[in-house]
């Protein structure tokens, strides 16, 4: 994050590319017990347990850094396809987060990255 120090004031921050996933398959054809709820998994998923504590610490450090840099908003990728969303909060105790933060549908997030790959992008966020 230090490479961006002093460069983010007023910026809309796009946090990382969406990960490539393996399709969950047809839920009607998934035998019970094999994958009770079929979900898309990252292609690099080697079935290691998710380290939620490390993820939480990373997000807290990012939030603190973005707040200090006075970013305008933070956009995150949704891992689900077909316009489905998970939601989260960037604050604690049900209080608004320090920075406006939103998940984008995977389709829109990957489109935004394709545009960014071609050059600078202007965007408007209304949260």
What would a concise description of this structure say?
It is built from two helices and five strands. It has helices at 52-69, 106-118, and strands at residues 12-14, 21-22, 41-42, 73-77, 101-104. It has a three-stranded parallel sheet.
Question: Can you describe this structure?
Answer:
The mean pLDDT is 79. The relative contact order is 0.20. The chain is α/β, with parallel strands linked by helices. A 3-stranded parallel sheet has the order 1-4-5. The protein has a two-stranded antiparallel sheet with strand order 2-3. The chain contains 2 helices and 5 strands; from the N terminus they run βββαββα. The chain has helices spanning 52-69, 106-118; strands at 12-14, 21-22, 41-42, 73-77, 101-104. It is globular.
